[in-house]
């Protein structure tokens, strides 16, 4: 939690009539007392025992409750400052200052394409035939991962590799190495970037009767689908948060495309093909 967060909280407490001290971004007896008084008045359910939390944790809970009251989703009101709380409080402060929430169109995804990945309509000409449920497979390579993935539908099941089309395997190897170097093991797990939701899958695109998914060529990956639903926009998708920007920029430097960062849906997904 930053000084700016405390200053914002003090201003909100003052507006609610529970704080008359300076807006100095410093927690002191006046600020802490106002937080304890206002927390049960914000109309949000609080966990049992919150009165025994440290003043810092109560301050975090107050910001979480304020965000929840404004229709934002900071996660549970638990007093812990994690990535979702950080993003949501920042969004709440941005709306207070500018009158609007951060917009996904503020994102400027990279446009590099050093490997000449094709457009979706040209995928077959570039990569060859897609796989089929009957058994035909594109030329796939097992690319080892520098960190261990957990399977989204069974978090107890580890995965140490990703399937990749042979034309994308070298690029994927570099990407995984750079992501691992940037975040490190502990941070990858904290951000749920170790949760794997899909690679090669010989199926049609969701909602289509004729168009094959990019997964059918082994040129697409999904991550943490429970926190990044297909139709969720940047206001809900976890992978739209600022701490994931380096993750996407590493993919984009190799020419891969995030549908979230280009079209604001399917934030779980990245592919080695340019949308038509």
From TrEMBL:
Output the superkingdom of the source species: Bacteria
Q: What is this protein called?
A: M15 family peptidase
The organism named in the record is Paragemmobacter kunshanensis
């Amino acid at each position: 939690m930053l000084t700016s967060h405390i200053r914002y909280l003090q201003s909100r407490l003052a507006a609610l009539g529970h704080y008359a001290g300076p807006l100095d971004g410093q927690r002191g007896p006046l600020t802490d007392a106002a937080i304890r008084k206002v927390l049960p008045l914000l109309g949000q359910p609080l966990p049992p025992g919150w009165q025994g939390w440290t003043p810092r944790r109560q301050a975090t809970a107050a910001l979480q409750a304020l965000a929840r009251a404004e229709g934002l989703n900071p996660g549970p009101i638990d007093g812990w400052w994690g990535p979702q709380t950080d993003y949501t409080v920042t969004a709440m402060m941005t709306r207070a200052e500018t009158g609007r929430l951060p917009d996904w169109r503020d994102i400027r995804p990279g446009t590099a394409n050093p490997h000449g990945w094709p457009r979706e309509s040209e995928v077959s000409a570039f990569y060859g035939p897609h796989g089929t449920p009957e058994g035909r497979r594109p030329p796939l390579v097992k690319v080892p991962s520098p960190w261990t993935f957990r399977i989204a539908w069974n978090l107890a099941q580890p995965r140490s590799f990703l399937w990749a089309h042979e034309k994308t395997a070298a690029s994927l190897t570099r990407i995984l190495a750079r992501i691992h170097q940037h975040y490190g093991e502990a941070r990858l797990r904290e951000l749920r970037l170790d949760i794997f939701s899909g690679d090669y899958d010989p199926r049609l695109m969701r909602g289509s009767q004729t168009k094959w998914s990019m997964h059918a060529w082994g040129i697409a990956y999904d991550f943490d689908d429970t926190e990044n639903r297909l139709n969720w926009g940047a206001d809900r998708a976890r992978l739209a948060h600022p701490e994931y920007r380096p993750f996407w920029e590493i993919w984009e430097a190799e020419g891969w495309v995030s549908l979230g960062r280009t079209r604001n849906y399917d934030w779980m997904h990245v592919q080695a093909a340019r949308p038509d």
